[in-house]
User: What shape does this take?
Amino acid sequence: MRKLLIFGTISNPFSVITRFFNRSVEVKTMNKTFKLNTGFDIPLAGFGTYQIHGQELIYQVLDYALEAGYRHIDTAVVYRNEEYIGSALKTLLPKYNLKREDIFITSKLISQSGKDEAFVEQMVRKSLANLQTDYLDLYLIHWPGVSGMQVTHPDNVKYRAASWNALSKLQREGCLRSIGVSNYTVKHLKEMLADCKGIVPAVNQVEWHPYYYQPELLEFCRQHGIFLQAYSSLGSSNTAELREDETVQSVAKSLQKTPVQVLLRWAIEQEVGILPKARSRDHIQENVGLEFDIPAEQMKQLNGLRDSVGHKFAWNPETVV
Assistant: This one.
């Protein structure tokens, strides 16, 4: 298994992104894992469930996902589908001769506002009950801001620290194997590391695609043993802009792959985790067809999209104090 790599100071903005050029595919993407700073292994590729609702649909897509080889399922309290996922897995795991320990489940909670740490524990216990499991492999603070509070309010700092303290307690108890964050910037991470009670985040899940990526954030995370996961790898669900980009289309054509596969492989080349979501069996199968390398020159072309075209598709955590 490839170990998490530690890097030095960035000498140019693409140094982290280009470290893995011309690296052969050593392990099938769906079988590849990273060892987190907690000692647990996380699959490099996970199945995202954002905007996938309803008992029947959740069952169907998870059936397709497990069939395709996914062993990591990513959800969140605000997705409002934990209960459906728990019910589906109760039936689907035996169907595929899997046990609970064979899969990796992630959920997330936005920092609480005006509540004590007991509220966070209450929400975690609810997630455990909804997902019908005694433990979660990973639980994240979904956003550095606080629900119902202005992003510029100084109390954001206090409440996210309280949330972290509550999750740290639950990790020590064992019902959360690893804990981490999502949408945290370098500023937020530095603040957390200065007072994290000895528990460094295992994961930071952020927007990451050729139109928007942060080499400095990737470098910082690797220096501190924090695994970086990408969301919005294909851009936004509301637009095909990134998938229809001329450069992405050209690279895909030259490699005889689809634009979706190129965008997902672009992150894999950097050893950044991916969490693509899909609803049809064909798209789910497409998303796991990643056993190829993107040549260095074409990686440079894709990297260049950030400066020539780039923009974000999701919210901007830089505005949160």
